[in-house]
Design goal:
Blueprint (H helix, E strand, L loop, with lengths): L3 H28 L1 H40 L2 H38 L7 H6 L15 H14 L31 H12 L2
């Protein structure tokens, strides 16, 4: 059995050798920086290759593990995994549908702005299911414009200028200037008698 002193002496000599080697490396790097940079770049390239090969092996092992786990799953577990995937897919489709409805509603209201008194009326009266949103989230502006035009033809009172109606805010009936004002009591009866006898 070697003596502890012998081991300590061996360790001291190894440490001295390592220090001498690192001092020589430091000296050579200071003497030739290009050679030092080239060495560092070579070390970096080796490490990169090693990491890439390790990542490739890891992906391969993970894929094999997934296949193995799937093969060892019971029918019930496979059905549960499929149901979970289907539920996720349905939830994403439902979210997309809701988002598309919001996009369509906002586009229709924006297109109706200035053309309808209340742009929200366009959303109430136009069937929004007639419109589709493409993958970029865009809506056919011509189709929306045509639908608003049709709504204005069908319901002109929704127009921003009030359709064909005009007048003051009270919108009461107007007398023609040629009609005399009707007096209360006897004057009213006289006027009624005159208009019925003229016919």
């Amino acid at each position: 059995m070697p003596d502890d002193n012998d081991q300590a002496t061996d360790n001291d000599q190894a440490t001295d050798n390592d220090q001498d080697q690192s001092q020589q490396d430091d000296q050579s790097q200071q003497d030739d920086p290009q050679r030092a940079n080239a060495g560092l770049l070579a070390d970096l390239a080796r490490e990169r290759k090693t990491r890439q090969s390790a990542e490739k092996r890891l992906r391969t092992i993970e894929a094999e593990l997934g296949r193995f786990q799937q093969a060892n799953q019971s029918e019930q577990e496979q059905a549960l995994a499929k149901a979970s995937a289907d539920a996720d897919k349905a939830a994403r489709a439902d979210e997309r549908t809701k988002a598309n409805r919001r996009i369509i509603s906002a586009e229709v209201r924006a297109a109706a702005g200035g053309r309808l008194h209340d742009p929200a009326d366009a959303v109430r009266y136009i069937d929004l299911e007639d419109f589709d949103v493409d993958d970029d989230g865009e809506l056919d502006a011509k189709a929306v414009g045509a639908a608003i035009e049709q709504l204005l033809k069908d319901k002109p009172y929704l127009a921003a200028n009030g359709g064909k109606a005009s007048g003051s805010a009270d919108q009461g009936t107007r007398r023609k200037d040629t009609e005399p004002a009707v007096e209360p009591g006897i004057g009213r009866l006289r006027r009624a008698y005159e208009t019925t006898t003229k016919k």
